């Protein structure tokens, strides 16, 4: 994106946001099902089937399936897998940490959201990693309520992680949040860290997917032979949380949360505004 130009950013109408919210609520319910199903002895392919069935039942299409040839409706990234893990027949084991990332389309309008869950007896360090990632996501979302530029989202995420956890957790820099709307991945990129690039102006009509990826070790990563699964170089574990968020004339609304984010944003002093 050329500096100072907003021309490539899609601005949504009220009706388009309504469809995105519909997709977001179906996605939220399907993720509830997926998260509830994640347990010791269950395979990630079985979770994918349950998620796919929920979308179909609700009349939504998957934006993941067939995306550059992607073979499933969710990404399941287990342990040292950071993002874009492909569901398979391996059964989840006690203490596995799995991020479940899914999406849905209604009437051509997209939603994208991810949660991390730990099955069986959790390592407290994994619980803290996932909690830090989720909290960082909410800091980024809260920043959207008052930010004048997209770069302030990354500032908020980065400052929170650094101030609360010091060097304990790393923020992956090779993958970012993104604009979302008539396609899943659109301009602008939403960095999860502080940068000199302040980004485009944040304007009513924009929708952004906020999705920090945090690791217990170093941020170096590589993609496996399957050309999708991204893993940490040092084998340490990673967590991923994501919501799709609308900026509209009245304020912000989390499209992939049934309450628009109200419960999680209240402690941060932000009250989401219902879409017009
Ligand atoms: N939600 C994922 C992201 O924004 C997109 C997954 S693309 C897929 O990174 F092809 F893997 F589905
Ligand atoms: Co995304």
Automatic annotation (TrEMBL):
It comes from the Bacteria. PROSITE patterns: MAP_1. Pfam families: Peptidase_M24. Residues 19-248 form the Peptidase M24 domain. One of its GO terms (molecular function) is metalloaminopeptidase activity. A divalent metal cation 1 binds at residues 101, 112, 242. Binds 2 divalent metal cations per subunit. Has a high-affinity and a low affinity metal-binding site. The true nature of the physiological cofactor is under debate. The enzyme is active with cobalt, zinc, manganese or divalent iron ions. Most likely, methionine aminopeptidases function as mononuclear Fe(2+)-metalloproteases under physiological conditions, and the catalytically relevant metal-binding site has been assigned to the histidine-containing high-affinity site. This is Methionine aminopeptidase. It comes from Psychromicrobium lacuslunae.
């Amino acid at each position: 994106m050329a500096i100072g130009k907003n021309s490539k950013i899609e601005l949504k109408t009220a009706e388009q946001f309504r469809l995105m919210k519909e997709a977001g609520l179906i996605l939220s319910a399907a993720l509830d099902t997926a998260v509830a199903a994640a347990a010791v002895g269950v395979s990630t392919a079985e979770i994918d089937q349950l998620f796919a069935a929920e979308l179909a039942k609700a009349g939504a299409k998957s934006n993941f399936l067939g995306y550059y040839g992607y073979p499933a409706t969710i990404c399941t990234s287990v342990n040292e897998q950071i993002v874009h893990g492909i569901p398979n027949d391996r059964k989840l084991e006690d203490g596995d940490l799995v991020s479940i990332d899914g999406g849905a389309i209604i009437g051509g309008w997209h939603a994208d959201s991810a949660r991390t869950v730990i099955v069986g007896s959790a390592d407290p360090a994994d619980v803290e990693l996932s909690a830090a990632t989720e909290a960082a996501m909410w800091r980024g979302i809260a920043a959207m309520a008052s930010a004048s530029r997209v770069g302030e989202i990354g500032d908020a995420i980065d400052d929170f992680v650094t101030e609360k956890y010091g060097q304990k957790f790393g923020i992956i820099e090779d993958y970012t949040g993104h604009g979302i709307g008539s396609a899943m991945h659109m301009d602008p990129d939403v960095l999860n860290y502080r940068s000199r690039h302040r980004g485009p102006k944040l304007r009513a009509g924009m929708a952004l997917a906020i999705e920090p990826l945090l690791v217990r070790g170093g941020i170096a990563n590589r993609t496996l032979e399957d050309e999708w699964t991204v893993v940490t170089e040092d084998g340490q574990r990673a967590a991923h949380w994501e919501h799709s968020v609308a900026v509209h004339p009245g304020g912000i609304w989390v499209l992939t949360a049934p309450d628009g984010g109200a419960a999680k944003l209240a402690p941060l002093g932000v009250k989401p505004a219902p879409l017009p």
